Amino acid sequence: MIHELVPPASARVRRLFEPLSFHVSCASVLSGSNPGRAFVDDPHDPTAGFVLSPEAAYVAGDAGASDFCTSLGSFLGDPANLGVPMWDLVLVASSERWAECLGEMAADHGIARDARRHYVCDRGRSLRPLPSPPGATPVLIDERFLQGDACAVPEHVRRWICHNWGSADHFLSVGFGMATLCNGEVVAWSVADCATEGSCEIGIRTAPAWRGQGLAAFTANRAILHAFSIGMTSVGWHCHEENVASWRTAERAGFVLERVYEEYRILEPSETVSARPTSEGIRIRMDIDADCSDAELDDLIVNTDVLEQDA
């Protein structure tokens, strides 16, 4: 059986997902800080669970709970339940044992594995502000910014906020973001994907015409510093292992590699393991020369950690 919960989740449910505590997006759904859905096999004595967040889907607990796995497979197999087909999901599991369960759920499709990097910047370490690129001015993404009084707000910012936070009002009360202006134009922006209990995760985007000037690392660095100033103790960043542009930008911004982990992706019926979809809402594989210059890295970086779906 599968039972949907109404956040905030109980302590028992949260303990079930403790192995995935480095995914703030999962914890923020369970706490009710960010929109999402949570399911368990037994609301009173849970042994297995599934969380759907704006960033990814998570499975935890006993992968041998056959009734739950069967029910979850049926649930994911019906696009009406999620609004998207199951191959649009990126799944992270609490243990390797879930691989077999996920494989059974997607027996007609197959499962692909992708390596991901998790970076962290803690308030306890000394983080220096990066020097401003020529003509760059960092600004807070606050109510005045979103009203567009001082500059035109990129539509991507509004979609990002709506997708991850549900509304601008909720974002302004719980989340945060920083943007960089050049000549009055918003050229880069870093928005919190999620936040709960002093921890958060951020992403980054640079306008195509302004790449190659170090704006991605600069804006993300300013977002980290702002997070600490409002009481956050830990800021996270996730990216694909092979997206060298993203993780080297993270390192320049001040992040430190915490771990490498695997995520699972259910293949589309016509897809092979070596091919990846490039449709909106799916993370895109990039083959990048690790020895390319800083400017080339900034030019290549794509926001692989935000699901760019229309609100």
Descriptive notes:
The chain is α+β, with helices and mostly antiparallel strands and 311 residues long. The chain has 2 domains: 3-108, Aminopeptidase (3-Layer(aba) Sandwich), CATH 3.40.630.110; 120-260 and 277-300, Aminopeptidase. 30% of the residues lie in helices and 26% in strands. It contains 11 helices and 13 strands. Strands 1, 2, 3, 4, 5, 6, 7, 8, 9, 10, 11, 12 and 13 form a 13-stranded mixed sheet that branches. It is elongated. The two termini are 31 Å apart. The model is unreliable at 272-311 (pLDDT under 50).
The number of distinct structural domains comes to 2
CATH class category of the largest domain: Alpha Beta
Share of residues in helices = 25-40%
Elements, N to C (H/E)? EHHEEEHHEHEEHHHEEEEHEHEH
Biggest sheet architecture: 13 strands, mixed
Tell me the distance between the termini: 31 Å
Rg estimate, integer Å = 19 Å
Salient structural properties:
single chain, 311 residues, alpha+beta, Aminopeptidase, 2 domains, 13-stranded mixed β-sheet, 11 helices, disordered C terminus
